[in-house]
Amino acid sequence: MPLPGSAQRWAAAAGSWGCWLLALLLLLVTGPGGASEITFELPDNAKQCFYEDIAQGTKCTLEFQVITGGHYDVDCRLEDPDGKVLYKEMKKQYDSFTFTASKNGTYKFCFSNEFSTFTHKTVYFDFQVGEDPPLFPSENRVSALTQMESACVSIHEALKSVIDYQTHFRLREAQGRSRAEDLNTRVAYWSVGEALILLVVSIGQVFLLKSFFSDKRTTTTRVGS
Hints:
elongated, 4-stranded antiparallel sheet, alpha+beta, Jelly Rolls
């Protein structure tokens, strides 16, 4: 017996909300497959390295961005287990590099601030190893995805895009706030310097004008014959 119109609408709404809740729950529980997101402090004249065990044929992506410090740049270097350089960039503010592991082993990527003498940096990186596991594994399946499962997969992908955009804008907001604070500090120092210069010039002008109108005593010496 077919459902009344209102019941069908309620069933469709319940199914939609069920997909949203299921996709959000799976995204929070499982998270991106093999992804590492870290924000760390990199002191001046320092170098920080990270290591990751990767299987052959795995697709990986390294993305980084300097959030605060100096000219917002850093050196980055990626090496395979044999020490072969896969990626190397000098004084980059942000970049992204994708590669496929050619062999099993421990891959190393380093961030260096050795060229900076006074300023430390705050660096964010996201290292993704492999693809995300499927929301509905195809093993032991004899039929295609149902309409509700397809909707859940689409919502899951949309939520991952939302998280990526949120991370991107959060980093931009942090970098913009750091630039604004640096600019505010420079303006404050410049204002104090100008005030001191004006004070010194004003005092100098007062003494200079006073010297123009001061009485000069002259001494006359008479020499009698």
